[in-house]
Amino acid sequence: MQKIINNPDNLVDEMVEGFLLVHNNIVAGTDNPRVIKYKDAPVNDKVGIVTGGGSGHKPAFIGYAGEGMADAVAIGEIFTSPSANSFYDAFHAADSGKGVACLYGNFSGDVMNVKMARELAEEDQTNVKTVIANDDVPSSPKNNRENRRGSAGEILMWKVGGARAALGGDLDEVIASAQKAIDNTRSVGIGLSACTIPSVGKPNFSIEPGKMEIGIGHHGEPGMETVELKTADEIASLSLDVILPDYPFSKGDEVVALISGLGATPLIEQYVYYRKVAEILKSKGISVYRSFVGNYFTSLEMKGVSLTLMKVDEELKELIDYPTDAVYFKQQS
User: 332 pLDDT band (50/70/90 cuts)?
Assistant: First the structure.
């Protein structure tokens, strides 16, 4: 295992320490070392936005804290949910008295710990409502969509929910916009290699050389099938074959497209992949309103890529366009 680390047991805490040193113009620590916040949170007279999840997906989740996105983020160990106490402390770090929208992914540990954190918050009359992201198409059939995992679509949910809160929406309005965003969003991951959890010291699964896995999860969860490695154009086509019929996306739609490397995929390959995605969408009469390409939601050093599409209307376009200074999603109006 060749990694730039010290003691694996201290990896997450040392990462957070470095993150705060670099980005102290945007974010700040809290009394809980596993909670960071936007430096001005709680923002007066604004609904607080909270998210959280396991480490290993950088820049998710802490990279999306900042004005116009998340007010506080709970931090877990590698591929492990934050504790209930961390979510609870994040609620308080974000709450100005207008309530808190907790927007997070559909993973059993996160669901359980957010539920416990909400119970704690109820005791001190902190109003917390939630939206659970379930955009990962291959993880469950369409007729059982509530069991699908969250994926890179969470980023667009945070962007939309954060913008609605920044524009003065009340808690119910923020929840409604965030729910609409994730309901309109579908994602798929393509894996070309495994990744190594530092505390384990060896890959947590395997993909043979010359193979790729369609529908892989961000923790290495099994996908739909393992096939021979394809060209970039073929991978783009296969990705859209999974996503487009599921919503379904159709001629005349406008979408936001987000391509994320999984940790070890160079940008040069991501752009090659995106050009074919854009070409296919155009051929089907689907317009790309905005596109994002980069390492937005990773899986340590896994090779591969994820594709996320969100169908947009005038409301969602306004919220996607709203400015933010989040650490890894800076956007001007």
Answer: low
Peptide bond into 222 cis (omega under 30): no
Q: Tell me: the pLDDT tens digits for 75-115?
A: 999 999 999 999 999 999 999 999 999 999 999 999 999 99
**Cα 264 to Cα 14, 54, 167, 270, 308, distances in angstroms:** 22, 19, 37, 11, 18
Q: Is 99 left (phi over 0), alpha (psi -120 to 50) or beta?
A: left
Q: How far is CA 173 from CA 65, 128, 285, 296, 311, in A?
A: 20, 13, 31, 26, 19
- Taking a C-beta distance cutoff of 8 angstroms, is the pair 187, 152 a contact? yes
The residues facing 70 across adjacent strands are 65
The catalytic position among 23, 92, 218, 219 is: 219
Active-site residue, 219 included: yes
Q: CA–CA separation, 151 vs 31, rounded Å? A: 29
pLDDT in tens, 44-67: 999 999 999 999 999 999 999 999
Instruction: Give the C-alpha separation, 236 to 263, whole Å.
Output: 18
Entry pTM: 0.97
Q: Which residue out of 23, 57, 92, 218 is catalytically annotated?
A: 57
Half-sphere exposure of 38 (CA within 13 A, CB side): 28
Please give the Cα distance from 104 to 217 (Å, whole number): 16
Q: Is residue 262 within 8 Å of residue 285, measured between CB atoms? A: no
Task: Using alpha carbons, list the distances in angstroms from residue 78 to 10, 182, 198, 253, 254.
Answer: 11, 25, 8, 37, 36
DSSP letter for each residue of 40-67: TPSPTTS-EEEEEEEESSTTTTGGGBST
Is-catalytic flag, 92?
no
Q: Which two tokens stand for residue 3?
A: 């990694």
